[in-house]
Structure formats: structure tokens, C-alpha cells
Amino acid sequence: MEFFIPADEEHIKREKQKARELRKSQWWKRKKSSGICYYCGKKFHPSELTMDHIVPIARGGKTVKGNVVPCCKECNNKKKYMLPIEWEEYLKKLKNETEE
To answer: Does residue 1 lie within any of the structural domains?
Structure first.
């Protein structure tokens, strides 16, 4: 994993609280209802999808509608604190597997 300077604890705490609130919103429930993982595109039961920050909170990302997406636990666990560009190779591999 690439070296990065983590966001300060106060930022992380504040954004995690915002994420808890956003998960209760109708907007988020509608977003998850499609059941489609933002990254791999596979279909899941909506309850199996998690909230992922495209720019992770630990990297300074914010909990705003433009930065959170529903994703499966496998993609979320693999992505961790990486930016999408940092795990582009993994995304390309997924795309190639679905095309075969």
C-alpha cells in the first residue's frame, strides 16, 4: 500500500458520524435498493451492500452524496484506504473476468 498521511482524528470522527446519519436517509436507501455494487457491477441483496467513500475518510474524503457509493463487502475490503486510481489494476481484472 502506498504511503499516505492520514487525516486527523477529529476529521475522521466527524465524517464517520455524518456517514451514520446519511445511512439513515431515504436517499441512501434508494441508492442501495438497486443492489448493484458500484465497483464490480455485480448484483446483491441491498442489505449486503456497504457504504464506501470513493475518496476515503482516512485520506481526507468527506461524507457527501458525491463521494459515497454502495459496494459489496468484497470490493470494500479490497479497496480499503486506496483511491480508485490506486486499485485500477484490480478493477481492470474484474472487468476482464466478466467479459470472459
So the answer is: no
- Is residue 2 included in any domain, yes or no? no
Query: What's the CATH code of the domain at 27?
Result: 1.10.30.50
Following DSSP, what letter does each residue of 29-64 receive, concatenated? HHHHHT-B-TTT--B--GGGEEEEESS-GGGT---S
pTM metric for this prediction: 0.80
Structural contact between residues 90 and 77, judged by C-beta atoms closer than 8 angstroms = no
Reported as type and span, the H/E element at residue 86 is none
Tell me if 31 sits within 8 A of 51, measured CB to CB: no
Chain segment 2-49, per-residue pLDDT in tens: 455 567 889 999 999 999 999 999 999 999 999 999 988 999 999 999
The answer as to whether 67 is a domain residue is yes
Cβ–Cβ under 8 Å, residues 22 and 51: yes
